[in-house]
Amino acid sequence: MTRAAEALPASFEALASDPAAPDGFARLALTFVADGRTVATVTFRYGEGVTSLPAVPQKDGYVGQWPDRDYTCLTYSQTVEAEYTPYASALAGDSGETPQVLVDGSFSPQAKVAVATAETSFTDADGRTHSGTAYTVTVTDPVFGAPDCTVHFRKPDTAARYTVWVQQGETWAEQKPGVDGSYLLIDCPGGQITFLAEVTTANVWLILLLAAAILLAAAVFVIIWCKRTRKPRPKQPENAR
């Protein structure tokens, strides 16, 4: 072999694969860093990779992950920075300017909400029949699973009062909703609920009974007031008889 041949350039890949190369020559490293702190350093050989990544440190209010890349074929040392994304606090059931359904809670960026509707009819424990459009709200979150949350349901008639019925297995139970402007607030444990929002109708007989009671009370007051304010008639003189 001539000196000229000995001086021919060789790629790092060829050198790393040379059995005569020192063991540490082809050993590279990935350094995992989160918020400026080193989490782990994982070594690998040129052209190979790492089979598992260290856990991303938790950060309040954020979801953390390592960058989505191919870690199975690596050719140089590098530093990998953790990526943190804030929790989502609300999910919309549709893309309208004022959504019919909003879900409030703490969700990962991958969380989704699905809203399905169906006409339904049922009888409550008192034998009264209720019917209308039932809404089924389902939250799926691959990070947090099935989180407890609050459903915000926009009232179809903002001036009306509503009663909310929640399906529990084969039965329906009345739930007292909160109110936030034009939205009803409905508890949604486990990220799934089926409910019916029904306009509350007044009891006609109760209204008539209350009206009669008010009129009776007013009549009694007028009679008592008249008796108290009536002036006594003056007595006539004896010689005027």
UniProtKB/TrEMBL annotation:
UniProt KW keywords: Membrane, Transmembrane, Transmembrane helix
TM segment ranges: 204-226
Superkingdom of origin organism: Bacteria
Official protein name in the record: Uncharacterized protein
Species of provenance: Candidatus Gemmiger excrementipullorum
